[in-house]
Each structure stands twice: as C-alpha cells, then as structure tokens.
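Progress against Task 2.4 (sequence-to-structure conversion) is shown through the following example record, which the project officer requested during the mid-term review.
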Amino acid sequence: MFDQHTPIHAAIDIGSNTLHLVVARCLPDDLEILADEVDLVRIGESVTATGDISSQKQAAAIDTLLQYKAIAQQHQASPILVVATEAIRQAKNSTDFLAAIQQATGLTVHLIDGNVEATLTFAGATYMLAKQATPPNTISVMDLGGGSTELVTATRGQITWRTSLPIGSGWLHDRSLPSNPPTHAEIEATRTFLHDYLQKLSIQHRLEALIVTGGSANSLLHLAHHAFGLDLTAECLTHEDVLRCEGLLHALPAEEITKRYQQPAARALILPAGAAIIRAVMAHLHLNEIHVSPHGIREGALLAYARYGAEWLTHVQADADSGTHRPETSSTSTPTNTTAASQSSDMTTMTFRQFGRHLLRERLHKMLSWREAVLHHEDSEDVHKMRVATRRLRAALDAYAPLCEPTAFRRLYRQVKKLADVLGEARDTDVMLQSLQEQLARANSQEQSGIAWLIQRLHSYRQQQQEGLAAFLHQCDEEILFHLLDECLPKGEHKHGKS
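Structure tokens generated for the chain above:
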C-alpha cells in the first residue's frame, strides 16, 4: 500500500519524438502516478535530415529537461532516472549531446539499446495487469516510438521473445510521408515498404493479444474517441477504428486535425505514419484489435529502480541480453532454423536505406527471373507474372525515390516503365484472346465465323507484340540494370546524412 513513506522517484524518457516525464510513488510491483508530462520536441527530425542532433533540438531538449527537473523536485522525487532511445543512438553527435545535458541540467542520461528499451517498456505497459483476478497467460507488447518499434512477448510473466525494429512514426514520416496531408503516391509507397519489411519479421508463435504503447497509439485512441464517438472508457482499437482514423488523417491537413480533434499540432503531422505502422503490424499479425496503454518505458524504469535500487540498469541489461532476438524457449515452443532466425534478425536491424537496397535488388532479380519463360511464350500467364513483378519493382522505386541518385534513378525507372508498358500491351491482348475464345465456345454458328476471324487477326497482332517484347528483353542487360540499381542507392552514407 502507498503511504507518505513510500519513496517518490522520477523517470524521463528522451525519445525520437517526445520527452516524457513520470513522477510516482514506487513499489517494486506498483506505482502511484503523481505527475505525467510530455513535450513533443522531435529530436529525430534533425537526425533524419543531417545525422546530427541540431543545436535547436539540443536547446529545446535541455529547456524541457530543466522544466521536468523542477517538477520532480517539487514532488521531492529522488533520484531522477533519465534514459535515451533510438534517435540518440543513431545521432553522430550523441556523446556531445549527452555531455551538454549533463553540464546544463546535472542529469545523467543512460543511452540504452533497443532490447533494454523493449524490456523496460514491457514492464511498464503490463504492470497494471497484475491487479487483475486472472491476468492473461501470454502477453505481447508493442512500443511504437518516433525512431524505433519494440515488440515483446511473455508467458507467465517471463519474456520469451523480443526484437527492436528501427522504424518509428517520426522516422517514417520524415522519409516516406512528408506531405500534409500525405499524397496517394506516398501512402501507397509506405504501405508497400511496411508490408515487405514486416515480411522479414519472424515470430515463432501467433500473438493472441497485443498491448500497444507510445504516443501514436494513444493519439489514435484519442482521435477515435473524439471523431467517431468511441466510448471514452474504451482502451481498445479495432482494425476498423484504425482504418477510419487513417481516412481522416489522409483527407485532412494536420492543422484541421488539431483544430477539430484536440491533437497537438506536431503530433497530428506525424500521426498518419504512426497509424500506418499500427495497421501494418495488425495485418501482419492477423489481429483485429489492439489494447492501448498510456504506460511504458518510464514506468518500467521506476519499477526496476524500486526493485533493484542503484543497480537497476545492470539488472535490466542482463535480462535483456539473455533474451536478445531469441525465440520462445518454453517446452511448447517449435525449434527454429538458426540460419533463418539470423537472417530475420539481420533484416530487421537494417536501416531504411539498407533495406531499400536489399528490396530493390530482390525485386529486380524476381522480375528478370521471368525473362526466359516470356521469351519462350509457352504460357500467357508468364507475361502476367513478369508484369506483376515489374509493378512491384516500380512501387519499391517510388518508395525510395527521395534517397536515390537522380540520374541513375531516371535511367533505371525509364527501363522498368518501358518494360511494364510492353508487357501491359501483350497482356491486354492475351486477355482479349482468352475472352474471345470463351465467346467462341458459346456462340452460335452464325457468330462463330466473325469471332474466329477476329481471333486470327489478334493472334497475328500478338505475334508482332511478341517480337517487339523479345527484342526489348534481349537488349535488357541484367548486369547494366543491377549496376544502375546500385548507383541509385550506393553503399555507405547518404549525401544528406544518415539513413
């Protein structure tokens, strides 16, 4: 039970989007929240643009931290725990940034890795469940931040699987959905990227339920409450709720969302990206509903300190290291293929740019794999399959166009578009021929001669198309195409900073 002698501690999370403070009376398994403050500074915005935390973002962060320190001191909270996550991990000048905070505020910031972040977030998001008469046996938590997303699963209170993905709402907004509101092309490219990225995420068992924490999830819940009359006590969002929120966010500019639905302006701007990630994860995990929690990494840090004292972070790090990227270890788990698990881990830790390189090469290879079958022209479906592969490559090129070297991109895109056009003409003729063949089988004797004549003419036209298609495919040099692709997204740092 909480009383006046229960120790009061404070925790601050320096994230890619927000700085967030929680002050609470703390027991090892429970918290009484006394203060909860959040400020959307968007440190990750400058890291995305240049690779560094800008002087403006640094000044804003320090100003907010000074305010939070004063609030904590008003509650006589001690110590004040401070953790920093993805945007700070990625910044080239993170050491200087942390030193500046120490000098200006006297606060020591712990730069934690993704798995420690996931472990703390899980503890914070789920501690309230212990108060239930029959808490769920298996619990899964997703923390959608500005620069990363953490996924954790536990059975009977023991973490069995976790991963940290370098994608977040601010990160995705800056790279893929910069317009206000997002354009149709941006939305389609983002959906393509998320679908393909999440295909690389290997989860060893089906998640029965998912608790989602972070600013985007809570803002979506708030939007559903105010825009669609969702019960104010409701803490769940269905797939339909998320779709309806996305519809609003795609139709209205952020300023209108702020005005109508009480959303902070900076949050409204990046909320379409957060909604896109949530919907993509729900689709990938075959979930129709998520539970939204206002608690997370800060509450996890406070519980860890109440349990372990000054050595709290050492204990959490040990717990995180023991389960890093490991599958379910209980007796009911399915043995995993080590190579596949390793590949999945490698894929999910790629940057947006690195994944783009991989995805484009994969799709170009898939497209070219149909060339010989199309040249032999033994099955009209081969043309269709190559056309689909070409469309998928173009969608990926559209998604990564802002990061590509312009000249190489235009040359490659022209080649792919020309191939798509030639394949499209051939495919349209194949479909017409198939339709006419079906009509011929059903036609009476008077109609058959006319249909047969048209089929013959179309066959001649299709043969001419095949000759043109073959000529184009023969001139498509695979080595040159891959060279152009590599020039589009060369290895190493992007000229505008980290990606």
